[in-house]
Amino acid sequence: MGLKVSNQEVEEERDEEGKGLDYAKRAQWVRAGVLGASDGLVSTAALMMGVGGVERDDQSMILSGVAGLVAGACSMAIGEFVSVSSQYDIELAQLKREGNMDQKHKLPNPYSAAFASALAFSLGAGVPLLASASVSSHRIRMAVLAGVVTLTLIVFGALSGCLGKVSRVKFICRILIGGWMAMAVTFGLTKLVNDFGILLT
């Protein structure tokens, strides 16, 4: 009987711990990290596929990916810094009005947010670059690029669902469809511009 009560108490403690977890707050960090990484992955891959669709030169395709990584990481960092800095100023002003400055250490750090955003984007963007850099054939490179991006998006979707305690299938489908659409539109429009000489005359 004593053992039974003990086990029951353990289960209750576990339940309380589960209730204490703030999945909404954790989901915000998950969303930021996955969003940054998937943005880097998809935008860089789409850029490389767009260039690869009209230019078979290996160097041009790789350089477009490098340029996308650097430009995207800088853009993400600057955007996050401005956004979090604004949030910091608003929350700091509120603490001053309330006379509760001892809570200042809990405010978001713009520099950390900018670094994390740039890092997440760079990690995602590095995937298509590394995957295509080791392939010599243009056709195989394009196929490998699409395959690697698809697999990585599935991993991102599953990870988001797991950490956010929601349906993994929903996350995977959502992120896959968005990624495929971005690559298809970029590839198609770039090829269209090249074929018809739009904006080039």
From TrEMBL:
Where is the major localization of this protein?
A: membrane
Q: Which domain of life is it from?
A: Eukaryota
InterPro entries registered for this protein in UniProt? Ccc1_fam
**What membrane topology was assigned to this protein in its record?**
Multi-pass membrane protein
Give me the segments passing through the membrane: 29-49, 61-82, 111-131, 143-164, 171-190
| GO aspect biological process, one term | intracellular manganese ion homeostasis
* Catalytic activity line of the entry: Fe(2+)(in) = Fe(2+)(out)
Which Gene Ontology terms cover its molecular function? iron ion sequestering activity; iron ion transmembrane transporter activity; manganese ion transmembrane transporter activity
Q: Which GO terms describe its cellular component?
A: vacuolar membrane
Provide the alphabetized UniProt keywords. Answer: Ion transport, Iron, Iron transport, Membrane, Transmembrane, Transmembrane helix, Transport, Vacuole
Its localization reads: Vacuole membrane
> What does the protein in this record do?
Vacuolar Fe(2+) uptake transporter.
Q: Indicate the family of this protein.
A: Belongs to the CCC1 family.
Q: What is this protein called?
A: Vacuolar iron transporter
Q: Which organism is it from?
A: Vigna unguiculata (Cowpea)
